[in-house]
Amino acid sequence: MSERVRQLIGDSFTESQTDQWLPVTDPCTQEVIAEVPLCTEAEVERAVATAAAAFESWRETPVGERARLMLRYQALLKEQHESLAEGLSRETGKTLEDAKGDVWRGIEVVEHAANIASLSMGETLENIARDVDCYTLTQPLGVCAGITPFNFPAMIPLWMFPMAIACGNTFILKPSEQDPLTPVRLAELFLEAGAPPGILQVVHGQARCVDQLLTHPLIPALSFVGSVKVAEHVYRTGTQHLKRVQAFAGAKNHLVIMPDAQPNQVINALAGASVGAAGQRCMAISVAVFVGEARQLIPRVQEALAAVKPGHWSDSASGFGPLINPQAKARVLELIESGKSEGAVCRLDGSHCDVADYPKGNWVGPTFFTGVTPHMRLYQEEIFGPVLAGMEVDTLDEAIDLINRNPYGNGTSLFTASGAAAHEFQKRIQVGQVGINIPVPVPLPMFSFTGWRKSFYGDQHAYGKQAVRFYTETKTVTARWFRDDIDRGVNTSIQLR
Ligand code: NAD
Questions:
Q1: Which residues are catalytic?
Q2: pLDDT in tens, 256-287
Q3: From ligand 1's centre to the CA of 290, what distance in Å?
Q4: What is the mean pLDDT of residues 202-217?
Q5: Using a 6 Å cutoff on CB, does residue 149 contact ligand 1?
Q6: Closest ligand 1 atom to the C-alpha of 324?
Q7: Percent of the chain with pLDDT over 90
Q8: Mean pLDDT throughout 37-65?
Q9: What is the DSSP string of 207-254?
Q10: Are 298 and 369 a contacting pair, CB within 8 Å?
Q11: 162 CB less than 6 Å from ligand 1?
């Protein structure tokens, strides 16, 4: 019998009492590697009650102690980096290098959370009136919740619970049901690092479980990362229940190539950013916009994409892994067909892709279209597969207009040797993360990671340093200090004028 994924409810990991279990499958073989429960309503209720009770003491825990928990956790994650990455590859099919990157980006956030003391300092102003001082306090909210997607099972849970908990909150994590083993391992390591009982709870489920969290009166704030349809539902329902919500959603990221761009740089960057991780990154480049003479690079881009081979995660020659499940593969194949029937030129077709020894894997090979136009489904929809859509325009202005009209605004990138073009682009482009000669501009936690239009809903204080603003309330205290009190010896060290 395959492993049963445990829940963290109360003080320890236990098996759910539910009678509903879903298979967790290896996307290279379809072998069932574990079963994940759909936790019962009572179990989720108990998780919330536990986190609410734990909040009472955790909020009183000195900030240095909270920071030291993060330091111990960071050290343990670094120690376990390789084994975490291997487990992550097994359940997602990501190449080992990619999996290590997934874990590492999470470790960086934990490292950042260890700075919680300086991150959450307030402001003070003396003498706003005679004997009156004013200052802010930064205080935790209570029980926060996080719902995460399949594509970064280490990094995205680690975007959320370490920052929230470092701020003094307690947290309920509902990881993706498609790859829950890595998030559960992260929670085990958190307890091993010395996290007090109850401050982190892990529940499993799908829409019903998420809705229970979204409408729960004891949860004031909720973070979500996932597809746009679900993000919109989460944002609507959460805010309708008067919660603070941040919802990172889907993407359609353009890389613009100016005629003066350095060709080798562009080609290497495009190949990695478009089909790397099988295109299953919210910051993957899915549209290449060739400006003017840059269109001459099209045959070389095609050649570079054709050279990237999908394969098993343990094979160091693999350029990327399979799609997460057969439904995702079917969706990508359908979008490839739509591109062909809507008149785009399919220069490289990965629809029929085999990988030796893994005939059942959800493989799709690198796929490259040119002649794509804005009305095509290939352009309108997020594909989330190793498919690059090529478009041609005559000027940088046209490229900027195209990107600003796209429904999504997560990431974008410009390759050019011109400082003036780069300056114009970064000023006028309406997208959350912008790369100049950088294909996948994912910021470190000292900066925000957000998104424009359909790529992000809610509170822009989303990630890293800014997340402290999401996971806390600030309180402004205006205090009059009576001289009489001081005279009575409340603070004898002060010498009155
Ligand atoms: P998904 O929306 O299917 O699932 C995300 C989470 O929502 C999962 O935990 C899932 O169980 C839950 N969920 C699914 N259906 C639900 C419903 N009807 N009601 C309530 N909850 C539901 O997303 P996914 O396929 O796991 O992840 C891929 C998507 O995530 C892509 O669209 C990608 O662009 C996006 N993503 C965005 C970012 C970002 O930073 N903007 C980062 C990573 C992934």
A1: 282
A2: 999 999 999 999 999 999 999 999 999 999 99
A3: 31
A4: 98
A5: yes
A6: 25
A7: 88
A8: 97
A9: HHHHHHHHT-TT--EEEEES-HHHHHHHHHHHHHTT-EEEEE----EE
A10: no
A11: no
Ligand 1: which atom is nearest the Cα of residue 150? 26
120-175: pLDDT as tens digits: 998 899 999 988 999 999 999 999 999 999 999 999 999 999 999 999 999 999 99
User: Is residue 494 over pLDDT 60?
Assistant: no
Give me the pLDDT at residue 69, please.
98
- Name the region of 278 (left: φ>0; alpha: ψ -120 to 50; beta: rest): left
Is the sign of the CA dihedral 376, 282, 173, 234 positive or negative? negative
Structure tokens at 66: 């909270």
In which band, very low, low, confident or very high, does the pLDDT at 490 lie, cut at 50, 70 and 90?
low
Sheet holding 221-225, edge to edge: 12-14, 7-9, 200-202, 170-174, 143-147, 221-225, 244-248, 456-458
**Cβ-based burial of 344 (10 A; exposed 0-12, middle 13-18, buried ≥19):** buried
Separation of alpha carbons 151 and 226, rounded Å? 9
Place of tokens 């111990």: 72
pLDDT > 70: percent of the chain: 97
**From CA 94, how far away is CA 99, in angstroms rounded?**
6
Instruction: Choose which residue among 225, 381, 450 to substitute to test ligand 1 binding: the one with the highest number of ligand atoms within 8 A of its C-beta.
Output: 225
DSSP assignment of 136-199: EEEEE-SEEEEE--SS-TTHHHHHHHHHHHHTT-EEEEE--TTS-HHHHHHHHHHHHTTPPTTS
- DSSP code, position 131: T
Q: Is the pTM of this model over 0.85?
A: yes
